[in-house]
Amino acid sequence: MVVNTTSTPQNIAVVGAGIIGVNCALALQLKGHQVTLIDKTGIGVACSKGNAGHFATEQVFPLAQASMLPKLPRMLVDPLGPIAISPKTMFKSLPWFIQFLNNMRPKSAKHVTKALKALNVNAIDYYRPLLEIAGVEHLLTVQGSLLTFESTPLADIKSTQQTFAGHGVKVDLMTLAQARELEPALKDNITNVIFFPEVGHTIDPQKLCIALAQATINHGAKYIQADVLDVQLDDGCAGVVVSRNDAIGNKSRAERISFDKLVLATGAASKSLFKKLGYKLPIQAERGYHCALTHHSLVKRPITSAERKFIMTPMASGLRLAGTVEYADIDAPANYKRADSLYINAQAIVENLPEKQSSPHWMGCRPSLPDSLPVISRATHHSNLFLAVGHHHLGLTQGAITGKLISQLVDNEPTDIDVSPFDIKRFN
Ligand SMILES: Cc1cc2nc3c(=O)[nH]c(=O)nc-3n(C[C@H](O)[C@H](O)[C@H](O)COP(=O)(O)OP(=O)(O)OC[C@H]3O[C@@H](n4cnc5c(N)ncnc54)[C@H](O)[C@@H]3O)c2cc1C
User: Fold this and answer.
1) Is 243 exposed, middle or buried (0-12, 13-18, 19+ CB in 10 A)?
2) Which of 38, 253, 305, 361 could form a cystine bridge with 339, CB 3.0-4.6 A?
């Protein structure tokens, strides 16, 4: 693979080694920059570790859906339902929820759909050369995904199918018998299935992050495990104040490292750094859970339940049941009963689900902005700062294209797609 060298190599720090940060780092290093990737917890150990592994290119609609409103009160009453918001979070994050609801207006929804389509349409193709460089092509499989229905009237399912098709998403409506040719384990209570033949999945999202980071390092990048406490930006210099952990977890004295440019890809924990730099970022931790059935894989591709709002994906380690939305503080204690509830839901849609072992549970914080669009942007007031955060439910899907776009912004090149919908200016 030929490295596309830029004419003016720069010394660039990428803060955050989740799927977004590692993609930014790799794209920049491949263009000949000297990249330093910095993370306080490790590579791919935050939200990017336990996601559902679904390259969900079909998801081109905003999360804020007016059709959701009538169902919301019932969902909220059930503490283990698909959406949970504590009264404390509701109060604290009221401005976020108001903005979220505001984005249900048809004009906003149209704008968001257009922007998400542009990001998603070739999202899988952006990954392919990177996986080749990293030698992990096997970590992306395109076998499609299924969306199952149990109680939704057929007319509504057909209307959903048409909505996807109307936005250029390839879809097939199937009977249960047809769907069972793809996935024999589907249960009798499923009435119909929408098949998305062009979407993909990975069998190990964390391994994917590590492989992309390793490829970046193999091309000359450095990795530092450290907490970025502060960022000091002057014309032509980006100073990063870090504190490293030693082997027994003691923090070192803060030290300042200087770079030419800086990319922040700090996920759900971005608010304080952005605030220090003078940028408003209405980011909300939208926490999700998974429960893993080790050593069992009943299905070949991701299967989502439209009514139960969860997904199951075959992973290298077994079957991963993932989903639920819990609006809460990043560091509030996890409620692993939400992960257990995924098993009960999975029993309802597939046969022969293995006994639930005392299986590993996981919780991660989706970095969610109220308009369902990420920030992929130059910083308004700092010429040497670039921002790649807020990919909510789609960070894995949009990782590679985000890295490419950030590398184009850094090099002041024309971008592959219009990035104006992702500009930080919209919140400032
Ligand atoms: C249950 C669940 C299922 C999901 N399923 C899918 C799916 O199937 N498909 C999909 O596309 N997306 C999915 N997602 C969403 C996806 O996982 C996220 O959008 C994505 O992981 C976000 O990546 P990120 O790099 O922005 O954040 P993260 O992975 O959270 O990485 C941010 C990193 O920044 C570091 N950091 C933050 N602040 C600092 C600091 N001051 N100093 C140093 N380091 C710092 C953190 O330590 C962290 O490692 C799912 C999410 C959940 C919760």
Assistant:
1) middle
2) 361
Torsion over CA: 349, 353, 358, 362 (sign): negative
Residues flanking ligand 1, CB < 6 Å: 15-21, 38-41, 45-48, 51-54, 56, 227-228, 265-269, 273, 288-290, 322-323, 364, 366-367, 389, 391-397
d(CA 242, CA 15): 11
Pick the residue whose CA is nearest to atom 26 on ligand 1. 267
- Burial class of residue 407 in the structure, from the number of CB atoms within 10 Å of its CB (0-12 exposed, 13-18 middle, 19+ buried): buried
- The dihedrals phi and psi of 322, each to the nearest 5 degrees, come to -135, 155
Note the pLDDT tens digit of each residue in 197-236: 999 999 999 999 999 999 999 999 999 999 999 999 987 8
Tokens representing 291 are: 């429960």
Protein residue whose Cα sits closest to atom 44 of ligand 1: 39
Of 294, 58, 286, which is closest to residue 165 (Cα–Cα)?
58
Residue whose CA is at the smallest distance from ligand 1 atom 41: 228
Residue 59's Cα: distance from chain center in Å? 12
Mutate which of 206, 266, 291, 368 for ligand 1 pocket (most atoms within 8 A of beta carbon): 266
Atom of ligand 1 nearest to the CA of 39: 44
pLDDT in tens, 118-139: 999 999 999 999 999 999 999 9
Residue 126 burial (C-beta neighbours within 10 Å; 0-12, 13-18, 19+): buried
From the alpha carbon of 364, which atom of ligand 1 is closest?
53
What are 257's strand-pairing partners?
A: 240
Q: What is the pLDDT of residue 247?
A: 66
Q: What is the DSSP letter of 295?
A: T
- Distance between CA atoms of residues 61 and 233, nearest Å: 36
Q: Provide CATH code, domain 8-59+121-135+202-279+371-428.
A: 3.50.50.60
